[in-house]
Amino acid sequence: MSASVAVAGATGRLGSLVCRVVEEHPDFELVARLTSASEPEAGAEAAILIDVSHPDASPAIVARALQHGQRVIVGTSGWSADRLAELEERVASLPDAGVIVVPNFSLGSVIGTALARIAAPYFDAVEVVEAHHPAKVDSPSGTAVRTAELMAEAREGRPFDAPFAEQPARGQLVAGIPVHSLRLAGVVAKQEVRFGGPGEVLTVTHDTHSNEAYRAGIRAALEAVGETRGLTVGLDRVLGIGALGARA
Q: pTM for this structure?
């Protein structure tokens, strides 16, 4: 028997792809395409809710889905560490609830972030430059925020060097790391993490050339969410590669 799925943000760039992935999967059935014009209770009959909507709308959409007893996949940007902490409390208070938050469905992006986390303890200077298409409404991207947070975590409290961080041109500080956001026509998504050390620079770069890069990650999250309990953050944990970015 197929598991029923509702998609919030179904008409967006990512939402359209999510709908196609669900429709193509033999174990799932797309029963609702939700937009900003949908009624609040629309799609409540689905077993799974995939939210790829808008950062401002996402928390309320996820809260309603949990109230309905739905399994939830969140692919919307804007879920900072503070927001995730609130979500974790909510999920913990609900028996049998399960939520997967995926800052980026791209396998290459996930591995790039893991590599940046490995390098972070060894370089005191680091900056992140991320670029996306002009229609992306939030900056920095959720991927950049997550990458910065994981790099800071890997340093176990040791601060990064971020000179003149008070100057607006130095970017937005995220977990003590300057993050620079570009919104350009002709770009799908790109992230560079640049580490500086005496006499050398290490750059971890990931380029997304089309939304097709997200297919495998969407399928992986979809197949995992039925067995998920509690809050899972990151496609790396879904795929079991989280240890790649952890210190030994």
A: 0.84
Given this structure, which CATH class describes domain 107-210? alpha beta
Catalytic residue among 54, 68, 136, 190: 136
Residues 101-121: pLDDT tens digits? 999 999 999 999 999 999 999
Instruction: For residues 106 and 159, give the distance between their C-alpha atoms in angstroms, rounded to a whole number.
Output: 29
- Nearest-angstrom CA–CA distance, 179 and 200: 20
The span from the CA of 222 to the CA of 60, in Å, is 21
**For this structure, is 132 an active site residue?**
yes
Rounded CA separation 191/181 (Å)? 9
CATH of 3-104+212-245, one of 3.40.50.2300, 3.40.50.720, 3.40.50.150, 1.25.40.10: 3.40.50.720
Residue spans of the domains in the chain: they are 3-104+212-245, 107-210
Give start and end residues of each alpha helix (H) in the chain. Answer: 13-24, 58-67, 81-92, 107-119, 142-154, 215-225, 235-239
Distance CA 111, CA 177 (A): 20
Give the tens place of pLDDT for each residue, 178-209.
999 999 999 999 999 999 999 999 999 999 99
Q: In what order do the strands lie in the sheet with 28-34?
A: 28-34, 3-8, 48-51, 71-74, 98-101, 230-233
User: 136 catalytic, yes or no?
Assistant: yes
Tokens of 209: 């050339």
Q: Which residue is catalytic, options 132, 133, 190, 206?
A: 132
DSSP label at residue 158:
P
Strands 189-197 and 125-132 come out as: antiparallel
